[in-house]
Write a structure and sequence with these properties.
Blueprint: E1 3-12, E2 15-25, E3 30-35, H1 41-48, E4 56-64, E5 67-68, H2 74-80, E6 85-88, H3 92-95, H4 102-114, H5 118-131, H6 137-140, H7 150-162, E7 168-172, H8 180-197, E8 200-205, H9 208-214, E9 217-222, E10 225-231, H10 232-237, H11 242-253
Helix pairs in contact: 4-5, 4-7, 7-8
Family: Belongs to the ABC transporter superfamily.
Protein name: ABC transporter ATP-binding protein
Pfam family, one: ABC_tran
């Protein structure tokens, strides 16, 4: 299954915030959408699943598996969310339900989309918690989100998004709220899960250093428009757009360097 976005336009209050965005995500590809704050990257991702704010008006084309989904009724889109396309948000503290246990949240989508029987739900929750490398999964599925660390909550959010084994995962800045060590662990987890399942990935970020660790191709947005589209190694070595060069400067300023620039020695 592939995702094809063509000439996507999003207007809010008469102001065009996404302006003619086009990109293609082939089956199994890992595509990054990167840009500064306000560039329209998160709105582009939300449009795929019909999760735009009520005041937003979208036009253009979004095709999933050769089916136009931009104008689908919410009832039809609800069948896609979680079952064929999963999404992980930036802040799991707000994305997760505070009054439901981890296990209930992990198995909510399989119960709705796959008819998961009540007697099978706990075992499924434990297995999925283990899949995202949560510690002591048999115990953690009985806990509530506030009882977990930030990194653990994000792992739960990933388990929720992948519970029905979707073919496409959209990750909207999933590591921004985490410290550097946990961020690296989450990126490693996402790489492994996507690769093992043969999923496609759309990864939204403002951080080129993060993008380099997860995506193979990048779409660069500025003020709602695509200003560059290139393989990630090319973007790192020879960015063409001013915004991409700025993102590269920001990344290297934090002591990060592209793999090709790093020394092969050991300390």
């Amino acid at each position: 299954m592939s995702l094809d976005v063509q000439d996507l336009v999003i207007e809010i209050g008469g102001r065009r915030v996404v302006d003619g965005v086009s990109f293609h995500v082939p089956d199994g590809a890992r595509v990054g959408v990167i840009g500064e704050s306000g560039s329209g990257k998160s709105l582009t991702a939300l449009a795929v699943l019909g999760l735009l704010p009520d005041e937003a008006v979208a036009s253009g084309s979004i095709r999933w598996d050769d089916r136009e989904i931009l104008d689908l009724p919410d009832r039809e889109l609800a069948k896609l969310r979680g079952s064929e396309i999963g999404i992980v948000f930036q802040e799991p503290q707000t994305a997760l339900n505070p009054i439901r246990t981890v296990g209930r949240q992990i198995t909510a989508a399989p119960r709705i989309h796959q008819g998961l029987a009540r007697g099978d739900r706990r075992a499924r929750a434990v297995a999925d918690a283990e899949r995202v490398r949560l510690p002591d999964p048999a115990r953690i599925v009985d806990r509530y989100p506030h009882q977990l660390s930030g990194g653990q909550r994000q792992r739960v959010a990933i388990a929720v998004a992948l519970a029905c084994r979707p073919r496409l995962l959209i990750a909207d800045e999933p590591t921004t709220a985490l410290d550097v060590t946990i961020q690296a662990e989450i990126l490693d987890l996402l790489r492994s899960l996507v690769s093992d399942a043969g999923m496609s990935l759309v990864f939204i970020t403002h951080d080129l250093a993060v993008l380099s660790q997860i995506a193979t191709h990048a779409i660069v947005l500025e003020r709602g428009r695509v200003v560059e589209s290139a393989p990630v190694p090319q973007l790192l070595s020879a960015p063409r757009s001013a915004v991409a060069r700025g993102l590269l400067r920001d990344a290297t300023a934090t002591l990060w360097r592209p793999e090709s620039d790093r020394s092969g020695g050991t300390a």
